Amino acid sequence: MKGWARHRHAWQGRQAVGEWRRVPGRLLSVLVLILGLAGCGGGPHSGVRDDDAGSHGPLARLSAHSPDRPELSLSYLARSPTTTTVRVDCGDGRQVEGEVRRVIFVHGTPGSAAAFRGYLLNGAEHRAFDLISVDRPGFGLTRPRHAVSSLAEQARALLPLLPDPSAGPKPILVGHSLGGPIIAKAAVMFAKRIGGLVVLAGAFDPGLERVHPLQYLGEAPPFVWLLSRSLRNANRELIPLKQELEVLRAELPRIRQPMIVLHGTRDRLVPFVNTGYLPHFLKNSVRLEIRPLVGFDHFIPWSAPDAVWQAIEDMDRWLRCAPSPAG
Predict the structure, then answer these.
(1) Is this prediction's pTM over 0.70?
(2) What pLDDT score does 55 carry?
(3) What residues are paired with 131 via a beta bridge?
(4) Where exactly are the structural domains of the chain?
């Protein structure tokens, strides 16, 4: 990707995602705003638009439904591949041809499918994939609109997008930040339907989770009224996250899928030391590779897209070319 495009997407990522560990700071800003408006008769309102219903160019805005969960309507952006088959060079003299693989991007908190819109738009520059970026429950156009703090329920929402194992290559899930533990939970719950995982600056270690006192205050009127739906739901996801990660810790040894982890060494939102946590628990993964991104921060989906694409393509190649293909 050209330099100007990389900087543009980095800026868009910072603007659009408003990552999850900034929530306490935003709550503090809200408190200051409330004090400033105390004599102005301010009331409950939100000037932030949560839904992304605009034009998406070559992308399609679609929705998926689960027969046993009528309350769920999973909205997502999609870009279909221009071909149905792909030929992969295994690097050992072999070439493998097969059906195009699906790649599902899962954003952090707050966020939306638009967080990975640039990947879908630029997907044609890379090996053919069936690209999907979801609005997680509680964000964007997906229903329910309220916060869903359970990692299991967030993972379950992805099920309508996971093809039957006999239908072709198993998909690769790509999760950023809170999306990391969500796709790991999905790998536990739907092991036969998922090929591999690519984790971008994922938060896994419950020992590193701290709840700022302002986050609890942000749940009380009038403060909660001044938060947009996305920030309100993000706060409600983060408060119980430590407990959710403790449950996931006991389940990590059940993950057998290969995982590639990308993490910036200057990440102040989800510290790089998180990368030392997973090797202790992913004992049964057929492959765990941690790739430090020296000098990069938390926003690697936008500041290091080439590294992300490389991880996706490497995962696809490994799944196709492994002595006993895993997906």
Answers:
(1) yes
(2) 53
(3) 79, 103
(4) 3-33+53-321
